[in-house]
Amino acid sequence: MPRTENFTEALQLTHNFDPSVSHSARLEAERYLMDLRESAEGLKLSFHIISNEAVDELRCFWAFNTVMHHLPMLAATVDAEQAQEFYHTLLSFIHRYLFASPTVTPIDYVVNKHAQMMVVGLQLFYPARWQSIFDDLFEMLDRRPTSPYLPTADLVTIYVLRIFEYIDERVVCVRDRQERGKQQQARDMELKDAMRERVLPKAADMWYNILLSDARARNPDMARLCLSVMQTYIEWADVNLFMTENWIHLLHFLLTVPPLQVAACECLLSLVEKKQLPGIKMRSLRALSVVDSVPRMMSLFELPPPSEAAVLFMEAAAKFAVAVAGQFLSLLDTCASLAQQQPATRSAATVEVSGVVLRDEPFTVTADLLDGLAGALHAVVGQVILVLQLNLFDVHDALLPFLQVYLKSAYLLESEAVELLATLFHQTRIPGVAYDENRIWDDTVIDQRKTLHNLLRLLHRRRPDLVMSHLHSLLLTGLSRLSEGGGATRASTAKDDADFTDPEVVEAALRYLYEIGESLRLENLKDPNDTITQLLQRVLTTEAVVSGEATCVHLAFFEVLGRYYLFFTYRPEFIPLLLQRLLLQPCGVMSRSDRVRARICYLFGYLLQLLKSQLGAYAADMVNALHSIVTTAPQLQPGDRRELYEAIGILLSICSEEASPALDGSSSEALRLLTASASMDDYGAAVVTSAVLAEVAPLLGRKAELVHTVVGSALHSLQQASASCAGMNGGAAGGSGHAAARSVAAAERAVADVISFLSALAKGLGSTESSSGAGSAAGSGASNGLASSPNGFVPGQWRMGTNPNASGVAVDGPLAACGAPSDAPLSTSSAMSATGLLVAQMFLHVTQRVMEVANQMAGSAVLRDAVGQFFHQLINTLPYEMLRPYIEDYVTVCLNWMEAVPELSKLLRLMFQYANKAGNRGVLSVARLTSLLWHRLCAVGELSEASPVVCMGVVSESARERVNVYKQFFTFLFSVSTWGCVAAFALMPSACWMSILRQLCYALTLPTELELPKSALQVLEKLTQELTDPVVAQAVAQYSSATDVVDAATAQRNQQVFSECLLQEALPTAFGALADPSFDLDDAKNFLLLGEVLQLFRVLVARYGEPAMQVLYERVAPYVGEATAMECCTVIRDQPRVNAALKVKMKQLLSRVHESQRRTPANPLT
Questions:
Q1: Is 904 buried (19+), middle (13-18) or exposed (0-12) by CB count in 10 A?
Q2: Domain range holding 455?
């Protein structure tokens, strides 16, 4: 026997917490026990503990686990005699533990663990070697102490039940079946077959006797365990063992025993769901008296349920009811199908399932049989509806899946549909929502209502007339009562679903109307006699709906109007009433509830976008109302104001420009200064002061005056917020502590919010092409339309001008004092209206102030982000010449203060939007900014072997951020090449340009799933097409005066570097990646990448000719032969485009290259 001193000490260290023991000592003890468990000495020690030692729970647990670990090895090595000896050794422990006079009272978890160990052995040794195990178990039950009050009596029963329970878990349960090998699955099937034949009849008698004894009253937990074990065996045992009169009576009796109700109901459910052929299934359902069982179970319900156990029983009964109904529905479908055959008699058909031949009971399909099945189905469905009406959330999940199936069936009766419709609608009500309006946002409530509304829509598809009649009657009746009652102000206790004086009911009815709209054709709203049209008119004109205090009703009201927005297109006379509800009443955008108000503000903007063609006559008045709201309503949150400022912008964009005789500039000096600013070459002299703008705004009409008022007010708010923040920073500098820091952060957040309001205003102004001209399209280099970027992104074209070569007004910007010249000669914008000039000048003043704030508070990340969002929208508002100096200043500020990689990604997204705006006028600006951006990107980290992106097959989070920012940068390069600024790359410093090209080439070697190779290939292809010598020469000549950027020698050197990179590095690297045997040619993404490489090759051949052809030839000729290589190069060159056939041909060629490399790895190109 091995020494046990260390073993005992290790057990104590690992299983008892002792603060004085170090963590390393505890780990050492765990390693010792694990090593001992693996060893033969550990197995011997386990047998000694089981056979000879007095029972110690901790030592026994370890011994049982060790034996379980060694059982597979023992099963493969011991003979029959040794196996039998081993079995008796294990079983002797439980005999000593339960039947000898123990010194301590037996403990159930020791019994359970021993049962687990025996089942592991049974799975390996039964039935060939442990043949007597079940006989021994049944004998143990017979040897139980006669006194039921001895603890060992029930422990013996529990031990045997656990054996059967663990057999089901290890042998039968399907959740682990996929992990078992075929040999183990065959052994499990052999064990089940042996148990069916030899064991289960006795087991069924054992379970029956246990349940029939007084144990159900004395030890309900044991009886419940017995029912639970029995239920798991019903699925694969012979069902006739349980379909006896005694069993059925016993199970129905146990339904009346509260502790056993759920378990008994689940056993009956398993009998109902037992897979059987139709004839046998009908006999089984008759034997179980299922039609009578359902109401009998319902009669046992305790309402309201006093405990969780009562709810569980109701849920189990609901599952039983829908299972019975489902069986009858399936039998009806089967019999209806058989009735169409001749003869209509079902013979004793046989079916083979998994090698087992099953014989059905013969039956004849008659009208009486069909009527009987239909009657049984409708009787059970009636009970299901009654259970549904209890409106218990836990019961819903059991009922609703069946109802979805039944509503689609042909057996749904009109009366059942009526009952279901009323019940489903009633349950969409949210109890208590009149007092706790936050309940409408509860995830559980939302999910439950979604399911119920899905059923209502399904019912509408089956019975549209019934549902529309119910909806019409419900709303008209309820609205009439509401008008008489004076408003929805109280919560009723009655279940009257037409009592609209209860906000709970009104909200549910409006949601009902909203959800049904998903199944309707909204074009029908043009019919004045349409049901929905009439209901919408009634809802909209009923003042009591919106005059109440319940914000949940207000929200549902506007959701309905948003869903049926076409109503206002066909009935524009109701638009003023809609605007009154939204803007002038407390139910609208000034709602007292923050969450409701946020949603209504969003819906307001949504309706504006959809109805703006009908709102022109009301736009000016709406702007006045909204401006008053955003500047005076204290309850508005920043998000609400953003939505409303965007709405103001939309309205300003659709306001008509009123003609004015002063537009010729002869009647007003201010107006003359404004109009002259668009054509003056000296942009420093073209500054239009705030006083001039204030004087000229009234002369230009209502729209210009509104723009001046709104923008001026927002600008004043920005000045106040920034001044307050500056004062707060000054006060915090002299103080310390978290309170000061929180105050500063709140002040910075306030400034960022005001800037976000200006962004939203600019977004709204740019949301329609009908707004007055104040900007210009990209230059002629981008006039051929939009090209998609490497990532498939195409920026939206929000233009405020119509002349693609128009120049806007420009003023001195932050970089003008540094002598930064304009990128392109300026031209007069004949298409720009005076109001458009006013808009541009107003936002120019805003931009100046925003950049002042950005420079003062550059250390605030939240402010930098808000300014970035502002420029995203400003790009669509200001002309390029005005915008350029501020964009350059903003980029410089951001790059100097940037703290995180995602900030750089956002900045790059702004930059390719800027490149689109600039077109061929932005060459110098893009050249400057690209160099700055690249230096910052290099600080993030290069793509190189020294800093791998993929390490051990995994992309780390930091590497993923780096990949994303490079993806954005490649998109920017593609945008610049597409939109006319490509000459900027030739004007960059050579070191910067070479570094960019080196990263593009390295990106070609990265895994395809990162998408960088595809982006890099597209960029190189576009550069090859656009960055030509004539383009560069023209740019050098055009911008020769900009000596700080333009240098002819640098441009020439950059072009030479580019050509050398393409032919000596990029193309060889691309083909080298394809020729690598690890490149999976069958991967769909790789197939697409192959097409991109071929496209780059064709473009290079078109530009450079023979040198490009030579790259591919030298790569493949050593493996496929010179003739084949030359033929491949020629075919790719001569094809008009890269199509699927060409890619397949190249794939076949690469397959030969891969195969040749695998055969001869030491090739000259490896």
A1: buried
A2: 389-484+496-619
